[in-house]
Amino acid sequence: PRADIGVTGLAVMGRNLARNFARNGHVTALYNRTQSRVDELIEQFGDEGDFVPSTDLKSFVASLKRPRRIMIMVKAGKATDAVIDELVPLLEEGDIVIDGGNAHFDDTRRREQALKAKGLHFVGTGVSGGEEGALNGPSIMPGGSKESYEALGPILESIAVAVDGTPCCTYVGPDGAGHFVKMVHNGIEYADMQLIAEAYELLRQGLGKTPAELADVFRTWNEGDLESFLIEITARVLDKTHPGADGSPVPLVDLIVDAAEQKGTGRWTVQTALELGVPTTGIAEAVFARSLSGSVDQRKAVQAAGTLVGPTGGSLAGAEAEGFVDAVRDALYASKVVAYAQGFDMIQAGSDQYGWDVDKGAMATIWRGGCIIRAQFLNRIKEAYDKDAHLASLLLDEYFAAAVGNAQDSWRRVVATAVRLGIPVPGFSSALSYYDGLRRERLGAALVQGQRDLFGAHTYGRVDKPGTFHTLWSGDGSEERQDAH
Ligand code: 2AM
Fold it and tell me: One of 157, 182, 285, 336 is an active-site residue; which one?
């Protein structure tokens, strides 16, 4: 046996990862249920590196050096279990099975346990960057045992993209940690995209700017603190035209149906956030905004009825418009900081819940390249956690505190303006509410506690003394201490 790593499941992602391994000097074993995918890969790209193709799973396994490293690249879900079940009887103690699909971290935890019981390593890994990243350098987030990382890490690091000489791949933590972090990455991606869309819509509707003009705005923003892949592609999308019905060029963004779709990782993030009790409002608003946009029939019915009225006066003029572009930029940046702060809180909560000991600064480091949320900004996050790994919130870091502090007047202006114009900004406004919520001493929660105690005897704590208390609401109105003392 001479192969360093094997890839099974050779659709686009698997094929590109296999080519990436081979291009980086790793002897790469290939297997796919349908033989033609193996043949095509060899035919088209066989000269890119040293491939060892197999026609059956047994010889595929036999072609690998031990401990065997086998990457499964099939559609997340039942197919992953089916392939694992076929593979496991052919493996020997210490072999490493890697799932590079977008699995739910609960599934990864279950699979890791099952394989560990058989003396095998199971590595659930996030792979971000799409087809292009898989081929030329993704961001890789591997979970599993530390021992498996010793055997696998160097190979993964060699195919990951590098930023400032550091590969965008590092050990994340045990069992489901890698897929959990990838899930949160995708959730943050949802939030980031929603905020950019809100900025676009505000400038388009509020200032009446054209998509081409806004492409310039985003290109300018891409030269400052907002510099990121998502801002860059926003400018490209806004610049794009296609012939409309009469053949003349129309901005593509005006030809695309205004209903956002989703594949589910954003939803997973929010479901998990709810279970962990972490307020990831930015991600939640982004997922719900996509749902609302996708409620096409309902939107059409409401628009057709014309009964839900909005404010009069739909755009800004004169002094109101003055500096609005810059204000939106500041609001976008501040909201983005909040969304990331929440995402990193969620990583911490998952890490605490499952005992993963995830290094948040290291996650920011491996997200700087390869993945969709790659951005300059992530250097700042890394620096913040380098300075203080136990930061209570990213918003407390000196740089970020100053950034949101300097932005807050613009942020409030933008949210107030959007409200006045009747333009929905769920991302901007909930991020601002979160910021104010974190900052203020009292939030009205004391009243909620009072209500809960009145209707359900749920008790409350007091600011002036320790203990748990209940007021005898339907009795004599006196207060009882409830905890043992
Ligand atoms: P196929 O080419 O034989 O369809 C993406 O669908 C990749 O996952 C493809 O390479 C596909 O193989 C593979 N795949 C999907 N379900 C599978 C299964 N149950 N067993 C093996 N491979 C599977």
Answer: 182
